[in-house]
Automatic annotation (TrEMBL):
Residues 3-236 form the ABC transporter domain. Keywords: ATP-binding, Nucleotide-binding, Transport. This is Iron complex transport system ATP-binding protein. InterPro entries: AAA+_ATPase, ABC_transporter-like_ATP-bd, ABC_transporter-like_CS, Metal_Ion_Import_ABC, P-loop_NTPase. Transmembrane segments: none annotated. It comes from Desulfofundulus australicus DSM 11792. GO terms for molecular function: ATP binding; ATP hydrolysis activity. PROSITE patterns: ABC_TRANSPORTER_1, ABC_TRANSPORTER_2. Pfam families: ABC_tran. SMART domains: AAA. Belongs to the ABC transporter superfamily. It comes from the Bacteria.
């Protein structure tokens, strides 16, 4: 187990958003967080990245209390891609190299540069290497911020709706890359998603959030029509098409 969350509660001033959140994520796992708009998914991800501090509960990363770690240690262990981000006057290469910052002591080494080149190649961003971020399309920029998080080589990768700006091909490529990174580097990817079909296709485990708390958590066995309808309030069928599970609203 790489991440363990127990009894987490969070409120924005007096507005309670999360209560009694409990789940575990294992190494190598693609873990999808699902739920309606406003269910608290982004808030939960921010608690996992220590941007927000839960009022109660514990979050352990590799058995250590997340809130007892130094900022540098957090940056080494956790990679985070927010739902919204701004483009800056960096080149794509430099922006991805920034992901290596928690590992760099004096200056970037040949290994750091190699990692950046590799990640850019995997995500098909090589040709954009020297372009400035503010000259990219929304989807290209989204791939760059994911590339930066992958270059960081974190133990846990936290992604908030990583495919929201991507076309069909890029949605698949990005999620495939994340899944491969989880498997090959034996890290965990915790991904907030809206597209149930993409979640079914790529995730190993699912956390369904409803009414501020965990509605269900587990593998494919919890993605039943009853649970999905219970969370989203829409009747659905879960079918297999070319042996791929798909959710169809009825
Ligand atoms: N900074 C904030 N201050 C006060 N309330 C907030 C703040 N950020 C979010 N909220 C509220 O907390 C609740 C959960 O928000 P959150 O962004 O975590 O939901 P979400 O599940 O990620 O939603 P979405 O799917 O729409 O992105 C919402 O009711 C939202 O209005």
């Amino acid at each position: 187990m790489i991440l363990s969350v127990d009894g987490v509660e969070f409120s924005y001033s007096s507005r309670p958003v999360l209560k009694d959140i409990k789940f575990e994520v294992n190494r190598g796992e693609f873990f999808s967080i699902l739920g309606n708009n406003g269910a608290g998914k982004s808030t939960l991800l921010k608690c996992l990245n220590r941007i927000l501090k839960p009022q109660t509960g514990t979050i352990l990363i590799e058995k250590e209390d997340l809130f007892a770690l130094s900022s540098r240690e957090v940056a080494r262990r956790l990679g985070y891609v927010a739902q919204r981000y701004e483009s800056t006057r960096f080149t794509v290469f430099d922006a991805v190299l920034l992901g290596r910052k928690p590992h760099i002591k004096w200056g970037a080494t040949a290994r750091d540069l190699e990692i950046v080149r590799k990640v850019l190649a995997v995500l098909g961003l090589e040709e954009f290497s020297l372009r400035y971020l503010d000259e990219l399309s929304g989807g290209e920029l989204q791939k760059v911020v994911i590339a930066r998080a992958l270059a960081q080589e974190p133990r846990v990768l936290l992604l908030d709706e990583p495919t929201s700006n991507l076309d069909l091909k890029n949605q698949f490529e990005v999620l495939k890359t994340v899944k491969k990174a989880a498997r090959e580097q034996n890290i965990a990817a915790v991904v907030v998603m809206h597209d149930l079909n993409l979640a079914l296709r790529f995730a190993d485990k699912f956390l369904l959030l409803k009414n501020r708390t965990v509605f269900a958590c587990g593998g494919m066995e919890i993605m039943t029509p009853e649970n999905i309808a219970g969370v989203y309030g829409v009747p659905v069928a879960v079918e297999r098409l070319a042996s791929i599970p798909v959710v169809v609203p009825l």
